[in-house]
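Holo model, magnesium ion. Inputs:
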Amino acid sequence: MEGDIDRILLTSTQIHARVREVAAEIAETYRGDETELTIVPVLSGSIIFVADLIRELPVKMKIAMLQLSSYRGDTRGELRTLLDLVGDVSGRDVLVVDDILDSGQTIRHIKEDIETKNPRSLRTAVLLRKPDRAPADLHVDFVGFDIEDSFVVGYGLDYDDHYRNYPHIGVLKPDLTN
Ligand code: 5GP
Ligand code: MG
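Output:
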């Protein structure tokens, strides 16, 4: 697995330090007894981020999952719903958590979908954002890191469903994604 990584962009130490900072920002936003927080992890890429993030959040919360796929195997394609939202969002303070904001198609779709279910509030958090690609009009409330426009894996992010367990975030060797 490690032999497939061309270079590391973010080490697990850097990631964990930043996740704690983002958790503090989120905790500040949702402090107060009247918060009815529902975290919506976007499967599968956000699993490691969400697991680390929510354990740093001393806030009463529910979890409502959904799964989308913007590409299958190694080819990009249509956005497909693999698992419909499972859990409580109506009347609640919803925080959607995804691994990476690239073209913004995924986050935009999820925001529109959840808006129709009448949440009390709706915010978004992503671990990574590619500023060169993200549309200027798409607001996300919490961002871990802005990164270069390269295809990255590790810490939950996959290539063909592999490398999610790689602890750092790195760029794959070019011949592997061709
Ligand atoms: P968007 O809809 O913003 O274009 O893309 C978001 C989704 O595409 C992410 O949830 C992620 O699954 C996938 N994606 C986009 N860029 C990357 C990347 O660099 N690496 C990996 N592993 N997935 C990516
Ligand atoms: Mg994803």
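DSSP finds three helices and ten strands in the chain. The chain has a mean pLDDT of 93.
Archived with the compound record.
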